[in-house]
Amino acid sequence: MDNGSEEEVRDPLRDLVVRRVRYHTNCRHIAANRDGRYQSLPFDHLIPLAFYTTSTDLKKIHNISYIAQLAVQQYKEDKAHLFSDWQKYCKALNGKLRAMAAFEGAVRLVGQFVPEPERQAWSSRQMTSMRQVIPLVESGARKTKGKRDDSEAKEAPRGTEAVVSWLTADHAAALSTKRVAVPADMNKVLPLLRRFIFVGNKLSHTRRAELRGGLLRNGLSDTVRLHLHPKNGEDCMLEVRVCRSVGQEISMAKEASLEDMVDMFGNHLFDGMEMSRCRRQEKSTGVVGTTNAV
């Protein structure tokens, strides 16, 4: 029966827009694609998008401008503070991305005091100048590291995979290849690895080749290795081959947020890393928010 009113149909995208407690991964995703997919968004839309959505959802959405508008609406309803969130956004980043985000935010803040007719042109000039300078700095850095990069390129594995591992030169030299626990029984490894890592391993070039060619049967794999140190009390190294996208997520997390690494690794592996000698040495020197133990 029509009583003159219709029930409002809720936009399903609105359900995706909610303040996130864990925002670091999304901040890095947006910053890394600032000059690409998110180039058209003004800065005061970018920050709400970073804190009110997730990178997983954004990758599936075609109309970025619309989801950004929804994020801004909710941002205003919640009376969130742009300046405070801008600082958090910058802290979630590292290196060049942090510098660019800090610069863009500063331009936006200073731009408020530039007369309206000149504001847009002034802001555009500042951002253009920054984008002209950054590549020059990167080029100089590459030249100084050229010799090392060439040698690393020769040793880097081919295909779409990365290795979750870190060792100092001395520690690596001490790890004997005869003391490596391989192959791994993936049926026993699965309960120890978080799904994020396990799926990344399954999508790696080497693991797919194993499964496709039947090189190792009965759930065995050479893509998970435990390197044992010959001396008691020293750290072991867990080497897990994962696909490039997962490797990049881990690389960004270890530089910016240990909170994200808990979700990626799970409590079992994360606690093991936290108890390692490498990690304890970092903490003793004041390194808390990031780590080289991965």
From TrEMBL:
Q: What is this protein called?
A: Uncharacterized protein
Region described as Disordered: spans on this chain: 138-158
Show the taxonomic lineage: Eukaryota, Fungi, Dikarya, Ascomycota, Pezizomycotina
Per the UniProt entry, what species is this protein from, by scientific name?
A: Fusarium kuroshium
Start-end of Basic and acidic residues biased regions: 147-158
